[in-house]
Each structure stands twice: as structure tokens, then as C-alpha cells.
Specification:
Layout: H1 2-23, E1 78-83, H2 93-107, E2 111-116, H3 123-134, E3 139-142, H4 148-157, E4 162-166, E5 175-179, H5 182-196, E6 201-206, H6 211-227, E7 232-237, H7 244-256, E8 261-265, H8 270-278, E9 282-285, E10 299-305, H9 308-320, E11 327-329, E12 337-339, H10 348-362, E13 373-374, E14 380-382, H11 390-394, E15 403-404
Parallel strand pairs: 1-2, 1-3, 3-4, 4-5, 5-11, 6-7, 6-8, 7-15, 8-9, 9-10
Antiparallel strand pairs: 10-12, 13-14
Helix pairs in contact: 2-9, 3-4, 5-6, 5-10, 7-8
Length: about 400
């Protein structure tokens, strides 16, 4: 009995010791951790991440704004070259030509314009135009009279390039010229000068004794005679399109002779106008109505060229392959020229006369060079029943009676 009790006790002690051993945590040896790579997490996830379902495919293709390559810019429909003998800010001829060319760009946006200002007449003009052609120009507007012959020489060498010279007379297969009708404007403003003068002495400062300039002077004097038969026009040549020193000296010399109304045919009228304004003498501006800015008090009136519409028409003809060489002259009634506003001291009677002549011109009833016309020596140059032609005006070498000075 005693032995059986001892065995039970020993069995209980074994069970207790096994239970106590099971309650102690298992001890494992520590191991140094391996370094993690920068791209791997230090601790690996214990569970596999849940799969993410892809989003639905778009129903429309994404816009191509970000992926599309830029389209190549289309080239110009025509490249135009234009050169000027003076500054395009001269408030005169060159500014008027520049503004007319720029009107082409406004009317036909696809054209490209290459411009060059202050280009002397002669070899430099030919070099400039050739450079324009090398840059792709197939229409050239040489705008100074002295650009004509260099341009004509280039036209013969470049039969695929069209030349539209402004103010000349030469013609060819790919060479033509255009201009306004200054004689009609000079005649009308001459009439205003005849009504304004107190001394009966009018002055005309002119660059060169070429045919058209002689024609302008004759028109001015004939207009003055239409309102004042006693009026004379004294001419002073500067032999330069733009020489302010000579223009100022010529203006002063005319005023010293008793002239009290002055006009001109030079590129930039500013010097003549300012010189006359300082001495209290009326002026008539030309080429651009911007010239009025120089005469706040003694401005009579003036005219400007507005050839943009005509140049646009010619340009479109080149683009369309319809261009033909024509001798083109267009005036006030055609939109190629405009009259400037009257000055602040111009009498209403004078304004009314000018407006009446403009109306007569627009109606086609103003005859300027109808015969009979006599020259300074009294010789009949245009017989009664006849009139000067455009070709004759471009080559005129005589002054009408009433003009003082030499036409050559």
C-alpha cells in the first residue's frame, strides 16, 4: 500500500514539472540582422497584398495635345521686297510708300514683306533688290524714281520676278510701274495758293528737273492762274531727294524774294514746312498728310499717297498668276490719293473753292492740260483741242508761262 502511494506521488510530480516547463517561452539564439537594400522594405509583409483591379478602359481616345508633334508652319503665299530711298518715318513720300506696302500685308496676311529703307539710287539699290530675290522675293516694289533703271536691269536677269516700280515710265515683260496722279492735286492746291497769296509770288522747292516734276510745277501754276491770273511760281532746285540743308536754304531764299505760299516736290517735306512756318509763310504739303504736324498755324492743305489698295490688287494678281504689265496711274477718285485737312486759318471761301474742284475732279470734268498751252517764251506747246498725254507728262522739259526758273 505504501509502495502504491509512492508511485502516485512520483507521477504527480512529473506531471507538474512538465506543465511548468510548457509555460516557459522558448529561447532561441539571437542572429545579427542583414542590411536591407534601399529598394526593399526592412520588414517583409506578413501577408500578400490584395490585388488591385484595373480601371475600366477609357471610352474615348485621349486627346493628342500632349503627344502630337508640332505642325510645320506653312510658307508665305508670296514674298514681297520693297525698298525706299529715305526713312519710312519721314512724314513724306517714303512713309506713304511704306504704309501702302504694309496695307498689302493687312489685306493678304499670308504674304511676307522684306523692306529696306535709306537705299541710295544706283548700284546699292540693285544689290539690295538682288538680296531680296535671293531671300525668295518674287514681287519687288522699287519706290524711288532712281531705283527704276537698276530694277529694270534686274528684271531682265530674273524673268520669274515681277517688278512694280513706283513713279517711273519704263515697261517690260515682267516690269511695270504705278503711281498716283499728283498733277490733279497740284492743280487744285495751286488754286488755293492763288487765292491765299498777297504778293502774287508762289514758291516751289523741287529736287530734280525730271519730266514728272516739271509737270507738277506746271499744274500748280495753272491752278494758281485759274483763281489769280497774276500769280507766278518761282522754282528752286535742290538736286537731291533728301537734303535738309539745301531745302532750308532754298525755302529761305524764296521767302526773301517775296514768296508767301510754298510747296515742294522732295521726299520729306518737313524741312520746307518748318522753315516756312517759322517765318509766317503758308505751305502746301505733299506725299503724306502726316506733314501737317509741322505747320500748326500756316498750313494751307496738302495731299498724300494711299496706294495700298492698288498694291494689294497687283499682289493678288501675282499670286493668282494673272499679273500683266500695265502703265497704271490712279488718283483721288480711285482711292490712290487723299487731300489733307485745311489749316486753322484758311478762309471758308478758299475751302469751298477747293471742295468744288475736288467734286469736279471726281465727276471727271476737271481738265488740267487741255490746250492751248504756251511755254515761258510764249510758244504754243499744246494746241487747242489737244491735251498732254501721260507719256508726254513723264518727259516734259518746258514750263508754262508764269513759272520763273529753268526746267532743265
Amino acid at each position: 500500500m505504501k509502495t502504491k502511494s509512492t508511485l502516485v506521488l512520483v507521477s504527480l510530480l512529473l506531471v507538474v514539472s512538465m506543465l511548468l516547463a510548457a509555460c516557459q517561452p522558448a529561447v532561441t539564439p539571437t542572429v545579427a540582422a542583414e542590411p536591407t537594400l534601399a529598394s526593399e522594405p526592412a520588414v517583409q509583409p506578413t501577408e500578400k497584398p490584395a490585388a488591385v483591379e484595373p480601371t475600366a478602359a477609357p471610352t474615348e481616345a485621349p486627346t493628342e495635345a500632349a503627344a502630337v508633334e508640332p505642325t510645320k508652319a506653312e510658307g508665305p503665299c508670296l514674298t514681297i521686297g520693297a525698298l525706299y530711298v529715305g526713312s519710312v518715318k519721314d512724314a513724306g513720300y517714303n512713309q506713304a510708300m511704306h504704309e501702302s506696302v504694309m496695307s498689302v500685308k493687312e489685306n493678304i496676311p499670308c504674304v511676307e514683306i522684306i523692306e529696306a529703307e535709306n537705299i541710295p539710287e544706283g548700284p546699292d539699290a540693285e544689290k539690295t533688290m538682288q538680296t531680296m530675290i535671293d531671300q525668295g522675293a518674287t514681287l519687288i516694289f522699287p519706290t524711288s524714281f532712281g531705283h527704276m533703271e537698276p530694277a529694270y536691269a534686274l528684271a531682265e536677269k530674273n524673268p520669274d520676278v515681277v517688278f512694280e516700280h513706283v513713279g517711273g515710265y519704263m515697261m517690260g515683260k515682267n516690269f511695270a510701274n504705278l503711281y498716283g496722279k499728283p498733277p490733279e492735286a497740284f492743280y487744285i492746291l495751286g488754286a488755293a495758293a492763288g487765292m491765299t497769296t498777297k504778293s502774287n509770288k508762289l514758291g516751289f522747292v523741287a529736287a530734280f528737273p525730271i519730266g514728272w516734276t516739271v509737270t507738277f510745277i506746271n499744274a500748280f501754276e495753272l491752278g494758281a492762274q485759274s483763281t489769280n491770273p497774276e500769280a507766278e511760281t518761282i522754282v528752286s532746285w535742290t538736286f537731291s531727294w533728301s537734303d535738309s540743308a539745301k531745302e532750308a536754304a532754298a525755302t529761305d531764299a524764296l521767302i526773301n524774294q517775296g514768296v508767301d505760299v510754298i510747296t515742294m516736290h522732295v521726299d520729306a517735306p518737313g524741312t520746307v514746312i518748318q522753315t516756312a512756318e517759322a517765318r509766317g509763310v503758308y505751305t502746301i504739303g505733299i506725299n503724306s498728310i502726316a506733314a501737317q504736324q509741322y505747320a500748326p498755324e500756316y498750313w494751307l492743305s496738302g495731299f498724300g499717297f494711299t496706294l495700298g489698295g492698288t498694291m494689294t490688287w497687283l499682289t493678288q494678281n501675282v499670286i493668282d498668276g494673272k499679273w500683266e504689265p500695265i502703265f497704271l496711274r490712279c488718283g483721288v477718285s480711285d482711292g490712290c490719293m487723299e487731300f489733307a485737312p485745311f489749316g486753322p486759318n484758311v478762309p471758308q471761301e478758299t475751302q469751298d473753292k477747293v471742295n468744288a474742284l475736288v467734286d469736279q475732279l471726281n465727276e471727271g470734268n476737271l481738265a488740267i492740260f487741255d490746250g492751248p498751252l504756251t511755254d515761258q517764251e510764249g510758244k504754243v506747246r499744246v494746241e487747242e483741242g489737244k491735251a498732254l498725254t501721260d507719256e508726254e507728262m513723264g518727259n516734259l522739259d518746258w514750263f508754262v508761262k508764269g513759272v520763273i526758273g529753268s526746267p532743265k
